[in-house]
Amino acid sequence: MDINHPLTFQGGNQIVFTGLSGVQSAWGDIGGNPFDATTTNTTVTFTWPQSAPSLQQSGSGQVGDFVITSSVNTTDLISYSVSSVLNPFGGTVLGPVYVPPPPAVVPEPSLFVLLCIGLSGVIGYTRRL
Fold first, then answer.
1. Quick one: which of 89, 6, 1 has its CA closest to 54?
2. What is the largest CA-CA distance in the chain?
3. What is the rounded CA–CA span in Å between residue 69 and residue 27?
4. pLDDT tens per residue, range 1-20
5. By CB neighbour count within 10 A (0-12 exposed, 13-18 middle, 19+ buried), where does 121 fall?
6. pTM of this prediction?
7. Per-domain residue ranges for the chain?
8. Which of 24, 81, 82, 102 is at 20 to 30 A from 90, Cα to Cα?
9. pLDDT tens-digit profile of 47-89?
10. How far apart (Å, rounded) are the C-alpha atoms in residues 107 and 91?
């Protein structure tokens, strides 16, 4: 996330992403300090833990990593709002949201048994000729 002003988080402060679809999981951190993530099908809320010390980021630039995994490839604008101590702000960020690749297709074990039976039948038939 890019910011243009100082940012201070205390326990309970949140970053909320909306405009999503098919949310499956999410994680986020700032400076290696993890947020608690709560998800619904259309929103993700990252909350700074109550037990965590206050976190201050000064200046501007990229701050933190936020990854949202979805079953839908969201390429539209995603809205976010940040409730920090000093400077609450919000904006939009362009998708896509990460969509994991489909699982590899693994053949059924019975397919191999049927294949072996079929091959042995063909071999037996050719020997009789």
1. 6
2. 89
3. 9
4. 555 666 777 888 888 888 88
5. exposed
6. 0.64
7. 2-102
8. 24
9. 988 888 887 766 555 667 888 888 887 777 777 787 776 667 7
10. 47
